[in-house]
Structures are given as C-alpha cells and as structure tokens.
Design a protein that fits this description.
Structural class: alpha/beta
Oligomer: single chain
Radius of gyration: 27 Å
Order of helices and strands: HEEEEHHHEEEEHEHEHHHHHHHEHHEE
Strand content: 15-25%
Length: 406
C-alpha cells in the first residue's frame, strides 16, 4: 500500500524530532563534562563521528536515525566518562507504542501469521521487523513476565479500595464449548493513592468458584489485610467469594453497570428521562436525599416498569455505600471505571473470532496492556484522606465524623 504525501510528511517530521532529541542528549552530556580538559586546555570528552544508522519502528513508521559517538580521551582509563543514551537505548528496535499495539491486536482476534500484514498496513511497507517469528518471541517473553508477576509476593500490601470486573475478549481461551469464559481482573488503590493491578486470571464471569480461587491465591501470596471497600458489578460471583475471603470488606455496586441493567428493562423511548432520574440518585449530596430519589424513581416508573424498579431496589443499600467514605473519593468509588477504561478497547463487542487463542498468551497480553496503561494512571483525588480510611475513621455523607470521647 503506497504511503500518502501526508504520511511521508509525518514520518519525516517524527524522524527529525527524534534525531534532534538524540543530538540534544549528546550535547547535554558533553556540556556536563566540559570541565574535563588536558594540560593544554583541550576537552577530553568529545564527539567522535557517528555510530551506524539505525532504524526504529515507531507509530509514525520506520525512522532512520544516527547516534553521535562520544569518546573520552582522558589518560585515566578507569575514570573515563561513559555515555549511556536514554532517548535511544542501544538495543531498542521498536518504540513502546508498537509493543502496546501487538497485545491489542491479539486480543481482538488477530492470528500471529497476520501480524506482519496488519502492521505494514498501519506503518507502511517498510515495517518488516515485526515478522511472525518476532511476534512469537515477544509473546513468549511476555508470557514469562506475566507468570513471574502472577506469583509475586504480596506480603505487607494493603489496599484501601479494590475494583473487580470480568473482561470478555474476542479470543476464545482454548474452550469453544464454553461461551462465558473471560478474564478476571482485580485492581487496588494503595495508601498513597496509587492504582495497581492486583491479579489477572482467567475464569467464568458468573462463577463464585473462579473468583474464590483468585482471592485465595492473592491471600496465599501475602495479601492478608481486608480492603475497606470493594467495587464491582452486581452480577459477579465475586461478592460471594469476597465474603468468604475478606469478610470485613464493605461492598459498593457499580452505578455504570446498574444503570445499564435498569434501562435495559425499559422501552427506548423512556430511557433518556429515566437515565436522568437515575443520575439524580448517585449525584445526591447525602444518602438521605439519595434514598428519596430512589423512592421517587420507583413511584414514577414502578407501575409500568416493575422489573426496572425491582432491579434498582434489590441493591439499594450496596449502591449507596460510597457515602460512608470521603467525598473526594466518590467519583472513584461509584463505578468500576479504573478497570473499564484500561481494557475498554478490547472488550468483546459482537461475536467471538473463529480462531482459538492460547490461554497463557491471552493472559500475558492482558497483563501487557495493563502494564502499559498503568504508566498513565494518576493518583486518586484526595489521596491524602486514604490514611484516614485505612485507620478506620468514620465518614458520613463524605465528611469525617468526630470521635466520641470514651
């Protein structure tokens, strides 16, 4: 497929920017060591030509760049300055965004043999560095990284909040007969407000046993302290498993999932207004007002849409648990968005692909996507109050309550 003039312009611009960054890094290193001179005042750390040209595969296509060679001519060989580039590490062949693309394509159902053609369509005919053999080696490397990560020690870890969700992907995990197989994900918020993936494991979305095995596994690896709150979809078998393993953890149902479940039980013509009424519930400043908004919804729609009202009422209490935590955290606690946003692009939207994917590789690909996404995660809003949550301080309608004297 021929590249358009615009593609070529973008690629050349990217190449120039990368070359300028490389040159600037070398200049900075030379300036840092400009005081190293010999008896005649001549600099000892100098440029010495260029290393052979290198081609880096990037999102803009293959970029050919040259790295200046740096030499320290000092007589003291043991203390010579050594230039180690950060912009262009010695063995870099692909930028990170290309490696992020491979897991996404795999989980969308693309077979290994089709990667080269797909990547050439995206990056140009020159993108031949990612052959099927290269992809196979990368998948094996990532599988080993996932296996090491999934066995890591969790001793001493403590999470104020955890989010749980089941992610369906296009790749069948070696089990054509079972259509409900998916990947289970648990994410946690640390005392410092950082978000971390705790576990990624395959299982069955409705299965309490699958979630129970996952939670037992993290306990076995050292996670002994009950999180203060767990957030998840009401349909998950996760809740029964949580009560067995971390019985002190409070429960918060995801408003995003609950809203969808309620609206699906109503005619499309009614859904826009009903959606606004649902928002009035979780946007209420106090639990008391939220309960009034629930009563209003039931009074307004209960007669005609009994199933929709029943769907809301059955989880009334666990939909409003977030009011018992700092108001600064409410936006994080009402939904499973931390997980949703991380894996949104690879969720199963329609039918599964015909091919069957490796369970081991699929888990590794989910792990790599999470690892990539985590680099952009921000700390929780109001993270300073997480220490109060962990200490067990009491909150009402988002405000800390004064402790009564004994």
């Amino acid at each position: 497929m021929p590249r358009s003039p615009l593609d070529e312009l973008v690629q050349e611009g990217a190449r120039r920017m990368l070359q300028a960054a490389i040159d600037a890094e070398v200049d900075e290193f030379l300036a840092l060591h400009s005081t190293r001179v010999d008896s005649q005042g001549r600099r000892q750390v100098v440029r010495n030509g260029h290393l052979p040209s290198r081609e880096i595969l990037s999102g803009a296509g293959p970029l050919e760049v040259k790295q200046p060679r740096v030499r320290d001519k000092s007589a003291d060989k043991e203390n010579r300055a050594s230039f180690s580039p950060k912009v262009l590490p010695p063995y870099l062949k692909r930028t990170n965004n290309i490696e992020d693309l491979i897991p996404w394509l795999y989980l969308k159902g693309l077979s290994t043999g089709d990667f080269s053609e797909a990547l050439q369509s995206l990056l140009g005919e020159e993108a031949k560095g990612l052959s099927a053999n290269v992809v196979v080696r990368l998948k094996e490397k990532w599988s080993q990284e996932y296996e090491a990560w999934s066995k890591r020690d969790l001793t001493g870890k403590q999470y104020a909040y955890v989010w749980a969700d089941g992610i369906h992907v296009n790749v069948r995990l070696e089990d054509e007969a079972n259509k409900r197989q998916c990947i289970l994900v648990i994410m946690g918020a640390t005392a410092s407000g950082e978000k971390e993936i705790i576990a990624i494991q395959d299982g069955y979305r409705e299965s309490t046993q699958s979630w129970y095995e996952l939670l037992l596994n993290v306990q076995k690896r050292g996670l002994k302290i009950d999180p203060k709150l767990a957030i998840g979809d009401g349909a998950l078998g996760f809740w029964a498993a949580l009560r067995k393993t971390f019985p002190k953890t409070k429960e918060q149902r995801c408003w995003f999932h609950k809203s969808g479940n309620i609206l699906n039980k109503m005619p499309k013509s009614v859904q826009p207004k009903a959606k606004l009424d649902i928002q009035e519930i979780w946007k209420s400043p106090t639990k008391k007002e939220a309960l009034k908004a629930i009563d209003h919804f039931v009074e307004k729609y209960g007669a005609k849409y009994e199933k929709a009202s029943a769907c809301l009422i059955k989880d009334r209490d666990v939909l409003l648990t977030f009011y018992d935590f700092p108001a600064e955290h409410w936006a994080h606690l009402r939904t499973t968005n931390p997980i949703e946003s991380t894996f949104a692009t690879i969720r199963l939207r329609h039918r599964r692909t015909k091919g069957s994917g490796s369970r081991r590789t699929s888990l590794a690909m989910m792990f790599k996507l999470a690892e990539s996404a985590s680099k952009k995660w921000r700390r929780l809003r109001g993270y300073e109050k997480l220490s109060l949550v962990i200490e067990g301080k009491t909150f009402k309608d988002g405000t800390q309550q004064e402790q009564k004297a004994a």
